[in-house]
Amino acid sequence: MADGKNAVPTNCGDVPHQESQTLTDTIPSEPNNHSGLRPALDEALLMYRLAQSINAASTLQDIVEAVARLMPDCDGVLLNAFEHLDMDRASSIDIVAAAAVPPHIEPQLRYRIPVLPVLHALRGEPLWCFEDIHNDPRADPVTRQIYAELPTQALMAVPLFSGRRLWGLLMFNYANPRTFSDNERRLAAGIGDLVMAAANRIHSQQESAQASEETTFMYTLAASINAANTFQEVTDAVARLMPDCDGVFLNFWEHLDFEKSSYAEVTAGSNVPERLHFLLGKRMPNADWPIEAQIYRERMTVIEDVTLDPRVDPLSRDNWDEIGTRALLWLMLLKNGRNLGFLFFNYTQPHQFSDRDRRIALGISDLALAAIERIRLQMETVSALDETRRLNERIQHLAALEERTRLARELHDSVSQALYGIGLGAQTARRALDHDPQMVRESIEYVLALAEAALTEMRALIFELRPETLETEGLATALAKQGASLQARHGISVVSEFCEEPALTLLQKQNLYRIAREAMHNVVKHANATRIIVRMRLEQGQLVLEVIDDGRGFRPDQDFPGHLGLASIRERVLQLRGKLEIGSAPGSGTRIVVMLPLSPA
Fold first, then answer.
1. How confident is the model at residue 559 (pLDDT cuts 50, 70, 90)?
2. How many whole angstroms separate alpha carbon 498 and alpha carbon 545?
3. How confident is the model at residue 425 (pLDDT cuts 50, 70, 90)?
4. Three state DSSP letters for 341-378
5. By three-state DSSP, how is residue 524 classified?
6. Which sign does the torsion angle of CA 370, 376, 382, 387 carry?
7. HSE toward the beta carbon, residue 101, CA cutoff 13 A
8. DSSP string across 465-505
9. Crossing angle for the helix pair 182-226 and 231-240, nearest 10 degrees?
10. Rounded to whole angstroms, what are the CA distances from 430 to 61, 417, 418, 436, 446?
């Protein structure tokens, strides 16, 4: 059984022994000619002295001892508090202070007493009296048995209210049957009023102190949890402030969603007994814990004794028994209607959770959820950055491979073919050297033309292999060389119209160069054009780059599978935070315009 004196957050400690004295001993003994008024005067004086003593009390124990001094023939004055300080919510009642109790009854004071049906039956009465509880028809068998164990045969109980909430009882116990006089009943009711006022004052003071303590506790916990950078550090922070707990476990559902999961994984744990270390990192199948399906939507689940709680199914009870769990707090991590996981507070013995415990647990839940979400998102961000880095490295590798392949193809298609033509021309000139001077002259001119074209092509290819020369030679020069290379290689007219060199970063120049090169190569591969115009001009604070051809055109709103040139151009314009316009129609040529805002000087 739980210790009833620990059930309510009150100061019930021992007080120094005071000399046994009843308040009747302090009544003046001078004669009074109005003998009919003497009882009323005596009673008023007693209540006055009692009020002074009770109002000076700073603990509930002080109050009860002050009352007991007034009731010397009583076999125990008991102050009882209902669970949650509310009879309507309570399943038990605890003795939180007692005085003048016979030694043989003292062990019974530690027991928690269930809220008996007779208490509900008497709720509306200002004073509850049983002159012989074992023969009173209002007392049910359970009530008789409990009071036989005390033993108590007669009692008076004064209900104690805070507003309309019945939070406790002041009880006067008697070992033998007793007839209570009207004076005794009136005195008990008056004492009850004094006790109720003083107890409410003390409760209010304690609640204020408790609220301050809880605020400090939650501030400390918040600072510790907010400083956590790992899930383990979160559970460590919580466990440091829950020293009576036999393990704090952080669990995540598979897919971070109970409704999609088949198990929960124990991700972190703190203050875990050595015999339970095997749980860390373990996957706990949902099928082994049917209770989860009952409670997964609840923010907090409290089970004070798994062997007695009717919510606990036999399989869950057996599994908890195997790991030694007798009581628990279960805090679900609910985010936007989705159950990510839960914090589990394990207790190896039955445990009573006070209202304060429950409030703090809900505060822990909010703080932990915020920290866990922050850490989880950071981990996802780091993972995403790592994946992005790996993808970028892969893309760069593929781009380099593609570029090498393109250069090899262009070397083969241009320089290699030119060199082959130069060789043929030289052979022709040698054969005609002795008999056909005109043929020799034409062959040499053919060789010189091919050599010039090959040199131009090689310069363009070398430039593409070293794009950093854009910074020294400039974008206009690079585009002019690219145009000359296309013209020499493919026999297509390339007209260049450039403004002065724009003030751009190297990255901007590289992207614009590759955009223009891709556009010109698309013309060569797809447009069947005879003329390309490449323009670059400054206009209203932006650089405008145009590539225009007189080819067969196309419909820009259609997709062309396998043609990646336009997609590449769009991606590069997006990287530059520029604007792209494509104007074309079948039979009307194509105009590609890139507009790039220039930063003010």
1. low
2. 9
3. confident
4. EEEEEEECCCCCCCHHHHHHHHHHHHHHHHHHHHHHHH
5. helix
6. negative
7. 22
8. H-TTHHHHH-HHHHHHHHHHHHHHHH--EEEEEE-SPP---
9. 150
10. 128, 20, 18, 10, 13
**Are 127 and 189 within 8 A, CB to CB?**
yes
Alpha carbons 269 and 234: distance in angstroms, whole number: 9
Q: What is the pLDDT of residues 480-502, one digit of tens each?
A: 888 887 887 778 899 999 998 88
Query: What's the chain's Rg over C-alpha atoms?
Result: 47
Closest CA to 344 of 297, 294, 303, 283: 303
Structural tokens at position 451: 């050599």
- Determine the pLDDT at residue 413: 63
183 vs 161: CA distance, rounded Å: 23
Q: Are 494 and 486 in contact (CB under 8 A)?
A: yes
Q: In this structure, what DSSP letter does residue 306 have?
A: T
Query: In this predicted model, what pLDDT tens digit does every residue of 383-420 receive, in sequence order?
Result: 777 777 787 777 677 766 766 776 676 666 667 777 77
CA angle 89, 91, 137 (to 5 degrees): 110
**Distance in angstroms (rounded) separating the CA atoms of residues 57 and 198:** 8
Residue 521 — φ and ψ, nearest 5°? -65, -35
Q: Which distant-in-sequence residues (6+ apart) come within 8 Å of 30 by Cβ? A: none
Record the tokens describing residue 456, joined without a space: 């131009």
How far apart (Å, rounded) are the C-alpha atoms in residues 129 and 186?
12
Structure tokens at 545: 């780059």
Question: Residue 67: pLDDT above 60?
Answer: yes
Quick one: 557 exposed, middle or buried, by C-beta within 10 A (0-12, 13-18, 19+)?
exposed
Rounded Cα–Cα distance for residues 155 and 76 (Å): 10
- Give 174-183 pLDDT, tens digit per residue: 989 999 988 8
Burial label, 221 (beta-carbon count in 10 A; 0-12, 13-18, 19+): buried
Phi, psi of 315 (to 5 degrees): -65, -45
